[in-house]
């Protein structure tokens, strides 16, 4: 529509004027994906934030992502167009809970998924994302105990992939991914049995799909547990014509855009993250106009958290 076009034009103009860049996560609404300077998974966006020459970063994603960008770039202005864009997974552990857990395992190495608050990161030795969690845990000496948080499904996946016995897992979850059930994936597969299965490790079905795979119920060579960015790469390269997508459905817009001749089927069409959908074109425009909302992290917390985040961006 004309209104939408004029908002987009204004955004482009303001971006130029302010030397700003738009970073967007793969779960953003299509209109935001279509105007992003960089679209990607959590790791790709953290790396993009680190490498940009822009003065202003508008983060089209959720709060912890903007915080991570702020920690990596204290001298830049980091904007989150809606302060309410949080994350149920990040909310599943507080810094006090982590401190108590650490006291119970004083020798353990703490690995935090990037979906955590800056305070939790500051109490962690390593951060990781879904695309490098296995590599990060593998980089830790075998005899060291590991506390992995906060996602139980990603934790179980990493524990199986690394074969690590001395790894304790926090029982948090993302309500969107936990809602994608193993039965749904198996059922969709029954109706599309030539399809490749792409499963995010935060899903309730990710670890059970490993069993289903081992039992021969899901085909070994077609079942892939991947981050959102890895899913996109995989679907671009694969010769399959159909893909069952077990993650937040926003990514399907990008998959279809990059592969107009392939078919993408949501394992659960109701897997929609309400936080990711809070970012709209109007709010992006307002954020560039009014500097809303500037995300900063107190220096002391940022310094400690940066150590863990630096390891995340450099491994895997
Ligand atoms: P990735 O895009 O890094 O796979 O993360 C998924 C997610 O849920 C982010 O909130
Ligand atoms: Fe958080 Fe889940 Fe939404 Fe990702 S999809 S931002 S993990 S609530």
Spell out the key features of this protein.
316 residues; Rossmann fold; 3 domains; 4-stranded parallel β-sheet; 12 strands; globular; binds 1,3-dihydroxyacetonephosphate; binds iron/sulfur cluster; Quinolinate synthase; cytoplasm
If you had to describe this structure to a student in words, what would you say it looks like?
The structure is a single chain. With 316 residues, the protein is α/β, with parallel strands linked by helices. The chain has 3 domains: 2-84 and 276-297, NadA-like (Rossmann fold, 3-Layer(aba) Sandwich), CATH 3.40.50.10800; 90-174, Rossmann fold (3-Layer(aba) Sandwich), CATH 3.40.50.10800; 180-266, NadA-like (Rossmann fold). Helices cover 46% and strands 15% of the residues. It is built from 15 helices and 12 strands. The mean pLDDT is 95. It binds 1,3-dihydroxyacetonephosphate and iron/sulfur cluster. 1,3-dihydroxyacetonephosphate binds at residues 26, 41-43, 115, 129-130, 174, 202, 227-228. Its main location: cytoplasm. Iminosuccinate binds at residues 25, 42, 113-115, 130, 200-202, 228. Keywords: 4Fe-4S, Cytoplasm, Iron, Iron-sulfur, Metal-binding, Pyridine nucleotide biosynthesis, Transferase. Pathway: Cofactor biosynthesis; NAD(+) biosynthesis; quinolinate from iminoaspartate: step 1/1.
């Amino acid at each position: 529509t004309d209104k939408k076009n004029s908002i987009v034009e204004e955004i482009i103009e303001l971006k130029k004027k302010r030397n700003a860049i738009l970073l967007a996560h793969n779960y953003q609404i299509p209109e935001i994906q279509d105007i992003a300077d960089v679209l990607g998974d959590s790791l790709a966006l953290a790396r993009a934030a680190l490498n940009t020459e822009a003065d202003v970063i508008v983060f089209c994603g959720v709060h912890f992502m903007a915080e991570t960008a702020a920690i990596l770039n204290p001298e830049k202005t980091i904007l989150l167009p809606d302060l309410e864009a949080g994350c149920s997974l990040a909310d599943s552990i507080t810094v006090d809970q982590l401190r108590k857990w650490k006291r119970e395992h004083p020798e353990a190495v703490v690995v935090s998924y990037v979906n955590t608050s800056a305070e939790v990161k500051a109490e962690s030795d390593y951060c990781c994302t879904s695309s490098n969690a296995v590599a990060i845990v593998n980089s830790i000496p075998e005899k060291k105990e590991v506390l992995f948080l906060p996602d139980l499904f990603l934790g179980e996946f990493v524990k199986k992939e690394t074969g690590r016995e001395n790894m304790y897992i926090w029982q948090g979850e993302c309500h969107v991914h936990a809602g994608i059930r193993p039965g749904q994936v198996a059922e969709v597969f029954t109706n599309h049995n030539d399809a490749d299965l792409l499963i995010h490790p935060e899903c309730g079905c990710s670890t059970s799909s490993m069993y289903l795979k081992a039992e021969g119920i899901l085909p070994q060579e077609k079942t892939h547990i991947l981050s959102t960015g890895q899913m996109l790469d995989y679907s671009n390269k694969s010769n399959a014509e159909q893909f069952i997508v077990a993650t937040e459905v926003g990514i399907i817009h990008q998959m279809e855009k990059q592969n107009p001749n392939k078919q993408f089927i949501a394992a659960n069409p109701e897997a929609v993250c309400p936080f990711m959908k809070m970012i709209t074109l109007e709010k992006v425009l307002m954020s560039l106009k009014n500097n809303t909302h500037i995300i900063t992290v107190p220096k002391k917390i940022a310094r400690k958290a940066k150590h863990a985040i630096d390891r995340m961006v450099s491994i895997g």
